[in-house]
Amino acid sequence: MRLATWNVNSIRSRIDRVAEFLDRQDIDVLAIQETKCRDDQFPYERFDELGYEVAHFGLNQWNGVAIASRIGLTDVEQAFPDQPGFDKDAGESLLSTPVVEARALGATCGGVRVWSLYVPNGRALDDPHYAYKLEWLAALRANGARWLADHPEDQIALVGDWNIAPTDDDVWSVEFFEGKTHISQPERDAFHAFTESGFADVMRPFAPGPGVYTYWDYTQLRFPRKEGMRIDFILASPTLAARAKDAMVDRDERKGKGASDHAPVIAEFTD
């Protein structure tokens, strides 16, 4: 099984690149984030032509998550239990009229429970969106810990854009991000809570050390200057992690005209 996750930054703008990637990398399951479209705008037909079933959760031109699979797609679930919402008009009153955003989508593919996740950005350390991000992660972690406790043999993949660089090796400059989101200690603690619960970052054993990034800002020539962050992850339950045989970042997908600012992360698991 070859599982990939990719923040495509608009599926309608990049459907050709996604189609070529699926073929070139022989992907069985692709989790997609930031589709930036409603369900009725998603290019289902193109995926169908390629032999993939698709589940999509999109409410407007923001956020949006999807899962495309050629090895089965069942038990689709939009949002995880008790997923927090956010009221963008609430100002300082966080969650006064919460709206559950299109940030989490689950489906079972080839016996693996895959969650496509687009973790809130946080915006700034003093922004209500930052508190929302931490609450969102805590709720997801509580679900993940319960899933492992109730069914430790289950194969679960929590994948997507986590908007966190969990270690100093995962960012090109700690000094540059000092006082900003993505590397703050509460965010890093929230990420590490998943690994402490039993989920494993499957890529790290195959790509150790600094300089392995999945995101490069469009500005300031960040990509050619190799100034990136590793914020996209495949976290696997113990039984699934034990099957991991390879993992990588497809950096080529950040190159060329019309690229997303993220590159796909790919993991291969034994049968």
Q: Which overall shape is indicated by the principal axes computed on the Cα atoms?
A: globular
For the record, the count of structural domains works out to: 1
The CATH topology is given as Deoxyribonuclease I, Chain A
> How do the SSEs run, as a string of H and E?
EHEHEEEEEHEHEEHEE
**Total strand segments:** 12
* Major beta sheet summary: 6 strands, mixed
Q: Which features characterize this protein?
A:
single chain, 271 residues, alpha+beta, Deoxyribonuclease I, Chain A, 6-stranded mixed beta sheet, globular
Quick rundown:
By secondary structure, the chain is of the alpha+beta class.
Write the layout of secondary structure elements.
Layout: E1 2-7, H1 11-24, E2 29-33, H2 44-49, E3 53-57, E4 65-69, E5 74-78, E6 104-109, E7 112-118, H3 128-150, E8 156-161, H4 185-197, E9 200-201, E10 232-236, H5 238-241, E11 244-249, E12 265-269
Parallel strand pairs: 1-2, 7-8
Antiparallel strand pairs: 1-12, 2-4, 3-4, 5-6, 6-7, 8-10, 9-10, 11-12
Structure characterization notes:
The chain is of the alpha+beta class. The protein has helices at residues 11-24, 44-49, 128-150, 185-197, 238-241; strands at residues 2-7, 29-33, 53-57, 65-69, 74-78, 104-109, 112-118, 156-161, 200-201, 232-236, 244-249, 265-269. The strands form two sheets. It has a six-stranded mixed β-sheet. The chain is globular, with a radius of gyration of 17 Å.
